[in-house]
Each structure stands twice: as C-alpha cells, then as structure tokens.
Amino acid sequence: MSCVGLWLALEDANRSNGCLWGLKGIHKQGLSRRFRRLPQGGVGFDGPAPDWSSLMPEFEPIECSAGTLVLLHGENVHYSAENTSPVSRHSWTLHVVESAAPYVWAPDNWAQRQPERPWTPLYDSSSSSSSSSSS
Prior knowledge:
mainly beta
C-alpha cells in the first residue's frame, strides 16, 4: 500500500448530513482502476468506473463526532452521501504516500511533481541514527 487517506471530521458527520460510507474488505481485491496522467495531457482514469450498484447495500456508514480522524486504506472504496440536512459537515482531508527507496511510482502516476520541483519529505530517514546507552 502506498497511499493512506486521513479524513478529519471538523463537525459531527452522520447519515443525514453526508457522512462517509465504506465497503469493508474491498481493499483486499486490489485497485479497479487508476487515476493517472494522460498521454494527451491532463489527468483521468485508465478505465471505466466500476458498477458498484449491486454492492451498495453492503456499504456501511462511518458516522463520527467532530474531532474524529478516519484512516482510509489507499484501495478502500468509499464515498460521501448527499447532505440532506440544513446542518453542514465540514472535514479536512490529507493523503500520505510512500516515497522511500526502493518504492518507485509508476511513470504515469497523476500525483508526481516535475523533477525541478520534487515533493518535500516529511522527514529524512538518512539522517536517523541508532544510539544506545548504558546504565
């Protein structure tokens, strides 16, 4: 797995105001399609959208209180339902991806920066050292 989604509820999220819905265990089946850079420019999917209609009854609501952090496996199928209430449901989303060697991204991965503007790592693993102390 090279991607983890972090979804932080800034307000309570429930069925009426559009909480997340997830499909348990679907990540074990692997990716159904990839979002990638297109040869003609821009980005898009490499195949048609899967028909999830037969699995809709199996999706489960992820209702949570403000301040809850939901972690999503990079291959989990999830969606947010329509907010049918007068109450907002704001959230903050971040995706973190693997970049340490020997991990190599596919050349057509959509989330790559130009070589002259590489991603800034959150930490430098090459500077970590092990130390021991005696008592």
